Sequence to fold (183 residues):
Amino acid sequence: MTLRLPPLALLWVTLAVGGAQSVAHAGNIDPAHKFAWGENVGWFNFAPSQGPGVTVTASALTGFVWAENIGWINLSPATGGVVNDGNGNLSGFAWGENVGWINFAPIGAGVHITPDGFFVGFAWGENIGWINFAPTGGGVRVLVPFVAAPALGGAALIAALALLTLTARRSLRRVRTAVGKLA
Fold:
């Protein structure tokens, strides 16, 4: 006999066991706020009309940024990557084939995403200099909230497990009643 749990119970199991990951939407940069500025290399487009663009999640930035003067910048290369700590603090390195590594948390600077989704601060590329994420006439903003769902613990975890147990017992009672009627 297989016990089928209602969808709400399955959600609680997911939350109780592993926490929740925020949902990622491919290319979730606001098309009206998609540009950062590099004094030595020009505009960086985080939502280009061609290519995958950039996706922001609670744990990382992925995808590619287009810069007309230097080409594609990979935010998640195999040996690096830009990390989001879930609170909008970015760190790690992006890679540009024509410019090398770009540091999102250099000493004395860094890039942060505000609660309303705007990128602020500066990244540093040894070969290209500073990249300003909130320049006059530009700026980058994520459309979809990326903040990680809080992990359940303590009283919240106990409440979730109690609800799951209650729901499972009710489902089992319904199954037993249905089987009893068949016999």
